Amino acid sequence: MEQGLGSDSNHHGPIDKSRVLDVKPLRCLVPVFPNSSQGMSSISTPQPSPFVCVPPSGPFPSGVQPFYPFLSPNDSQNGAQQNQPANFGFGGSIPAPVPLNSFRTPTSHANGVTGRPKRVPKTRAFGSGSAAGDDDVYSDSQNQSDQYTSADMADTTNSGKQRGRPKRGRSGGPGEDFDVELLVNGFLTLFKLKEFDDFRRTNGDKDTVGTILLVFDMLRRRLTQLEESKGVTAGIARRPDLKTCNLLMTKGVRTNNTKRFGHVPGIEVGDIFFFRMELCLVGLHAPSMAGIDYMSVKVTMDEEPLAVSIVSSGGYDDDGNDSDVIIYSGQGGVQRRDGQMFDQKLERGNLALEKSLHRANDVRVVRGIKDIVGNGKIYVYDGVYKIQESWAEKNKSGCNVFKYKLVRVPGQAEAFSIWKSIQQWKDGTATRPGVIIPDLTSGVESLPVALVNDVDGEKGPAHFTYVSALRYSQPFSNNNKPFSGCHCLGGCQPGDTNCLCSHRNDGVLSYSSVGLLYTSKNLVHECGPTCSCPPNCRNRLSQSGVKIRLEVFKTKNRGWGLRSWDPIRAGGFICEFAGDVVKVTDGDFVNANDDDYIFDATRYYEPLELVRDSNKSKKAPFPLVVSGKNNGNVARFMNHSCSPNVYWLPVLRESNNDVFMHIAFFAIRHVPPMQELTYDYGIVMPENGGDGGKKKCLCGSDKCRGYYY
DNA sequence: GGTTGCTCATTAGC
DNA sequence: CGCTAATGAGCAAC
Q: Can you list the alpha helix ranges (DSSP code H) found in A533-572?
């Protein structure tokens, strides 16, 4: 791996001659098997099923399922059957402020359930309309007394399961005290991964890959939140990514687990990842650490190792001009403890790359890119490459290092190259083609939002005024108890038991330090005007405006749409829905049907459906309707999809007696740059004029309902 | 804000 | 089948 050399010598594209002390070409062979598919016919491993390149929005050929990323309607049945929401620690029946030690798994109880306090009648927080019913989502968590332990959280689906906390690794610190096992089992049941069979374990598809990645990241975020909320840093695992992956692996929840050459079913060129473990789980690149993945194949009589994939870990701004070429360094050569260097040996991955040069087989390439926000890395699947030449050179320490030149197989979808283009648009070294207005917000947002049309001659959408926030003519509701806010002068911190806002979110913060929604709650209490914390408090995420570089663009067949130049992580905040509040309580639906830019929270919405009782599921989730027609922000351009990559969440901000609800949009899964952002518009209930105003849905998903409102 | 140190999980290969 | 060596990311503390 190039990084193992402690040198960035290969990040300068064409070889930096000044650094190369002794370059001697080894060979540059014509491939032995010009037609790689024939050449590989003797490989002992079964060939992968043919790769089908499917755009995210379809259309989907038969056999290719789009990944419906959140929850299927049937899932809500689970919760309904139990007569209790399956909330897994974040659902509808929000635990009230939980003492930190409540996360401890009871050891003295035979069934693992601590004395569950009896439910007390909930009080309605907002006296705002019959639609609220008895739903938990309308309950002020401060008034709730259901103090579930984490065991309770999942026991609706795992009543008979083993209660003993598995002792894992060097556990024993307080960090292991909540029952991870139950948490995982809850997720697996919810996403129907309990009956995961060997076929799906071996052969992925879009749906399977998507579900596994979704579960991975939801679980990872949940574990991060739980560990962080304890406010203890010593003695606990600080790598929730590793822990999550290991949990899933142990349960056999993985796919494409047999190595193969070429594309991996269910993964598209351009897909992005944020952890090496994600690559591992979906079969894109098996080793958890090593940069070269290889397998032994039978060639005529004997076997030889061939490379199947590599992960390069360069920065994308110094990779040279040609984004279709990689100069990759071999692995090894460095003594880990003291960092001492030795010559690399032609073995393992290095040998496999060398052999792959001869055999000319496809090698998958995952580009590691430094994440601008945070210290992490983003992994972009850049499709398959072929190794064109190899050589050895000496590094600074005078040790031999193998170098491999990989060239991208032509005809694949744009992936890494788009990142470089975007970087150039941002730093001004290139102009985004088709730009009509560089910033349609006229400076209202802190980042410009370009208006782009590169498909036809339309010059822009109808006129509207750009506003960055929701405009209320009256508060969403009144709270009987004045809320004076929290006193976190330096911003709300996890594990601070004195933070009033944390208490209102069940004792934990809703957002991570990098602005990710920790869990799929159905309501977030953000800090309000009367809180003492600064504007950059992490509990004010949706108030801080758009932080990603968006553009409004003309779609091929769905009018204007929204997409991002920046990659968006699962759970990442995108924007709120700004506009004029049309309705906050029951009453006649105001001019909604002739407004293409309506946001209607009263609609049936499947992710929320999960945490609802089936009898109540048809009720309007939240009595809020917003029009973005005359005044609005980027959110008004987000199109509907039945397989969305974005969903919304109501966010409450309180000011003395007044409560204001805002609508915040978050990414469901990782969204690569330039992929259209869509959410499920939901279904209009008959009492709100459903069946009227149906529009033909063009989302192209095979889960498409055929229409939307 | 760069650097350093620590630890982790997976798998090839014995 | 069980064990071990090889591999580098991610995070936190400096």
A: none
- A2-34+269-412 CATH: 2.30.280.10
A427: helix, strand or coil: helix
Tell me the two tokens of residue A475: 């508060």
Residues 137-196 of A with CB under 7 A from strand C: none
CB A44, CB A580: distance < 8 Å:
no
The reply to whether A249 has its C-beta less than 7 Å from any atom of strand B is: yes
Question: Do the two domains A2-34+269-412 and A441-683 of this chain adopt the same fold?
Answer: no
Cα gap A633→A575, rounded to integer Å: 9
Q: Which nucleotide is nearest to A312 (CA to C1')?
A: C8
| Strand B closer than 7 A to residue A170 Cβ | yes
Got the DSSP string for A89-118? TSSSSPPPS--GGGGSPPSSSTTS---PPP
Residue A691 confidence (pLDDT): 60
Q: pLDDT at position A606, please?
A: 58
CA-wise closest residue to A419 among A533, A269, A606: A269
Both tokens of A259, joined, read 């190595």
Domain boundaries along the sequence of chain A: 2-34+269-412, 441-683
Residues 325-384 of A with CB under 7 A from strand C: 331-332, 334, 336, 348-349, 368, 374-377
Highest CATH level, class, for A441-683: mainly beta
Distance CA A588, CA A551 (A): 35
Nearest CA-CA partner of A142 in A481, A576, A394: A481
Supply the DSSP symbol for A19: T
pLDDT for residue A467? 96
Q: Which nucleotide is nearest to A281 (CA to C1')?
A: B10
In the three-class reduction of DSSP (H, G, I as helix; E, B as strand; rest coil), residue A71 is classed as coil
C-alpha A512/C-alpha A496 separation (Å) is 14
Question: Which of A210, A204, A213, A279 shows the shortest CA–CA distance to A67?
Answer: A210
pLDDT for the residue numbered A32: 32
Q: Specify the pLDDT at position A397.
A: 80
Q: Determine contact, residues A612/A136, Cβ cutoff 8 Å.
A: no
pLDDT at A284: 97
Which stretches of chain A score pLDDT less than 50? Answer: 1-176, 232-236, 587-588, 607-620
Predicted local distance difference test score (pLDDT) of residue A646: 92
- Establish whether the CB of A313 is closer than 7 Å to any nucleic acid atom in strand C: yes
Q: What is the per-residue pLDDT for A391?
A: 94
- Which protein residue's Cα is closest to nucleotide C13 at C1'? A233
What is the length of chain A?
709
What is the amino acid identity at position A21? L
